[in-house]
Design a protein that fits this description.
This protein has two domains: 118 residues, Trna Endonuclease, Chain: A, domain 1 (3-Layer(aba) Sandwich); 100 residues. Helix content is 30%, strand content 23%. The protein contains seven helices and eleven strands. Strands 1, 2, 3, 4, 5 and 6 form a six-stranded mixed beta sheet that branches. Strand 5 and strand 6 form a beta hairpin. Helix 4 packs across helix 5. The termini are far apart. This is SseB protein N-terminal domain-containing protein.
C-alpha cells in the first residue's frame, strides 16, 4: 500500500470532486517512476508514450516494482515528482496513466494535467493586517478542516500548528458578516514562510473554492474565539530499548 492507495478507498474515477482533488494533490508530491524508451542520456529523457483513444499518454507508477510488474520485466525509467511530470506532459499535450491495475489507478487526460499544472502554480495571498476575525463558516469547516489537518500534519517539525478563522467585513460593509477566511500558521521560522505558504496555497487550490477565498498568514498570537485549531506537534521519539540485564553473579 502506498500513500496514493491509502487515499483511494474509492476508485479515482468514481470518487467525488473533493477526493479526486486530494488524490491529485498527493500525486503532485509523489515521486513517480515513469517509463522511458531507453536509458537516460545525461539529463535528457524520452518518455515512452502509448496511443490511446483520446491521445498519447505516458505511464508511471509510484513504486519501481509496480512499473516492472506492468511490463513483466526490467524497463528504463526516470524518477520524477508528479508535479514535474505533469508539467512536461502538459507541454506535450499528452496524458498520464498512473498505477495501472492498482487500487489507485488513474487516467489523466491532457485537459486534467493542464488543470493540475495550473493549480500547482497557485500563489499564496497575504492576509491583511487589519482583519476582524471570528469563527469560520460551518460549510467552510466541513469542506476544509479534514484535508487541512492532514496537510499541516505533514509539516511536523516546521510548524507548531495553525487555526482557521472567518474574516468579517470592514466598517461600512453591510452587517459585517463573514466575507472570507484566513488560515493562520504558528511556530514557523521566518525563512520557511514562503515555502509553507506555497504548499498550503497549492492544497487550497485542490479544495472546493470558498466565498471570499482563504488567505494565509503567520502569527504566534492566540487563536480568535471560535477558530478551528490544528495541532502539528512533533512525533514523539520512540523510547530507548530496555538495557539487557547483566550476567548472573556466580557464587
Amino acid at each position: 500500500m502506498t500513500a496514493l492507495d491509502d487515499l483511494a478507498a474509492i476508485p479515482f474515477h468514481d470518487a467525488d470532486a473533493g477526493l479526486r482533488a486530494r488524490m491529485l494533490s498527493r500525486l503532485a508530491d509523489t515521486e513517480l517512476s515513469v517509463a522511458l524508451t531507453h536509458e537516460p542520456a545525461g539529463d535528457r529523457i524520452e518518455l515512452r508514450m502509448f496511443q490511446l483513444e483520446h491521445g498519447p499518454v505516458a505511464l508511471a507508477c509510484d513504486a519501481e516494482d509496480r512499473l516492472a510488474g506492468f511490463f513483466d520485466g526490467p524497463v528504463a525509467y526516470a524518477a520524477l515528482p508528479g508535479r514535474v511530470l505533469a508539467g512536461l506532459l502538459r507541454a506535450e499535450g499528452a496524458g498520464l496513466l498512473v498505477n495501472p491495475g492498482q487500487r489507485s489507478e488513474m487516467l489523466l487526460d491532457a485537459a486534467m494535467l493542464d488543470w493540475l499544472s495550473s493549480a500547482l502554480s497557485a500563489a499564496p495571498q497575504a492576509a491583511e493586517a487589519r482583519l476582524r476575525l471570528t469563527g469560520p463558516a460551518p460549510d467552510t469547516v466541513a469542506a476544509l478542516a479534514e484535508p487541512l489537518a492532514a496537510r499541516l500534519a505533514d509539516m511536523r517539525g516546521l510548524i507548531a500548528g495553525g487555526w482557521l478563522a472567518g474574516v468579517r467585513g470592514g466598517e461600512g460593509e453591510g452587517d459585517g458578516g463573514v466575507t472570507g477566511h484566513v488560515l493562520v500558521i504558528a511556530g514557523a521560522a521566518p525563512d520557511h514562510h514562503d515555502r509553507i505558504a506555497k504548499a498550503l496555497s497549492e492544497t487550497l487550490a485542490f479544495l472546493p473554492p470558498q466565498p471570499g477565498g482563504v488567505d494565509i498568514s503567520f502569527s504566534d498570537a492566540a487563536p480568535c474565539p471560535g477558530a478551528v485549531r490544528f495541532d502539528a506537534e512533533p512525533i514523539p521519539a520512540a523510547p530507548p530499548p530496555d538495557r539487557p540485564k547483566g550476567p548472573p553473579i556466580l557464587r
